[in-house]
Q: What sequence folds into this?
């Protein structure tokens, strides 16, 4: 074979390789484009769920706020009930002290001991 024939064969092979590479690239680009369109379609289909998710989140936040306020109210009521119980206990103790002071059979001397007391 002559040199010209070899050059023509090499050029034809290089052109064929370039065409094949171009076709493969185009095919890959087309597949990527189709995949991107599929992703866009799925995103569009899920777009309707986004406002519902936001609504659900806002409802959950509102419920949490109501629960927090209720917990604060319950804690406040518990503190108030504890104060009332402490006050009632103090009144009870005061009544017992008064009864001990009035009762002649109870020794209320300064040493802190009591004689016959009627306390439970």
A:
């Amino acid at each position: 074979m002559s040199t010209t024939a070899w050059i023509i064969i090499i050029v034809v092979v290089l052109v064929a390789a370039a065409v094949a590479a171009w076709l493969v690239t185009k095919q890959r680009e087309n597949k990527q484009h189709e995949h991107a369109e599929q992703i866009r379609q799925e995103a569009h289909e899920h777009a309707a769920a986004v406002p519902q998710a936001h609504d659900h989140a806002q409802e959950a936040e509102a419920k949490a706020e109501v629960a927090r306020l209720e917990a604060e109210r319950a804690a406040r009521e518990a503190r108030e009930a504890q104060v009332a119980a402490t006050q009632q206990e103090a009144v009870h103790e005061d009544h017992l002290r008064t009864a001990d002071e009035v009762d002649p059979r109870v020794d209320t001397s300064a040493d802190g001991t009591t004689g016959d007391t009627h306390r439970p």
User: Anything to note?
Assistant: The chain has two helices and no strands. Helices lie at 3-46, 49-102. The mean pLDDT is 90.
